[in-house]
Amino acid sequence: MSTTVVLHLTILPDHLDAIRTGMQESLKATREFDGCQSITLHQDQDDPCSLVLLQQWDSRDHYQKYYDYVVSSGAMEQMMPAFSAEPVLKFLDAVDA
């Protein structure tokens, strides 16, 4: 069963343009990562500094391998000064309703 991953980022206003530009480039590579079915970046209409990445992965393990890669590359550490709050990560399963 695939896994939905939601990552909420709150960005400092003076870093917003750079983060959005950087993500446009990095998400191209993410889409090629093993197990990534889709990933899209969304911006809150009422709070432009609130960004959400909606992701679909083959499994949580696939996402974890991707996350480990991001951390080991130093990309996460480089972005942390641009955040005004800790990132919030959620793993979701679809349920019948």
List the helices and strands and how they pair.
Blueprint: E1 3-10, H1 16-32, E2 36-43, E3 50-57, H2 60-73, H3 75-79, E4 88-92
Antiparallel strand pairs: 1-3, 1-4, 2-3
Cα(first) to Cα(last) distance is 17 Å
Radius of gyration: 14 Å
Strands in their spatial order, largest beta sheet: 2-3-1-4
Count the E strands. Answer: 4
Q: Work out the strand percent.
A: 25-35%
Q: Give the rounded overall mean pLDDT.
A: 95
Which H/E pattern describes the elements? EHEEHHE
Low-confidence stretches: none
- Give the biggest sheet: 4 strands, antiparallel
Helix-strand category:
alpha+beta
Helix content: 25-40%
- The coarse silhouette is globular
Query: What's the helix count?
Result: 3
Keywords:
97 residues, alpha+beta
Give structural notes.
By secondary structure, the chain is an alpha+beta fold. Strand 2 and strand 3 form a beta hairpin. The longest helix is centred in the N-terminal third of the chain and has 17 residues. It is globular and about 40 Å long. The two termini are 17 Å apart.
Summary?
The chain is of the alpha+beta class and 97 residues long.
